[in-house]
Design goal:
0% strand, 4 helices, mainly alpha, single chain
């Protein structure tokens, strides 16, 4: 005699995925500040305590670390061709 095993059907999630998530995915490429030239990645080593301060400060301001650092680097190293 064969043993019969029954499995319960998986329940559907009680909450749907936020429609905002789909909107974000579909529109994230259409940012007004989209770079006009190719981007290059920069990797630097900084002390953990400095990283923590920068990350916390950016989080409190609601900005991305990369955006803050780009602005700082642009101010520190302006494009000389633009100054002329």
């Amino acid at each position: 005699m064969a043993k019969e095993v029954k499995f319960a059907r998986p329940k559907k999630p009680t909450t749907d995925v936020s429609p905002g998530a789909d909107t974000w995915v579909n529109t994230r490429e259409a940012k007004p500040d989209k770079p006009t030239e190719p981007m290059k990645r920069l990797t630097i080593d900084i002390p953990s305590s400095l990283h923590t301060r920068v990350k916390a400060g950016c989080a409190m301001r609601g900005v991305k670390m990369a955006d803050v650092l780009r602005v700082y680097l642009e101010n520190e190293f302006p494009d000389e061709a633009v100054k002329s």
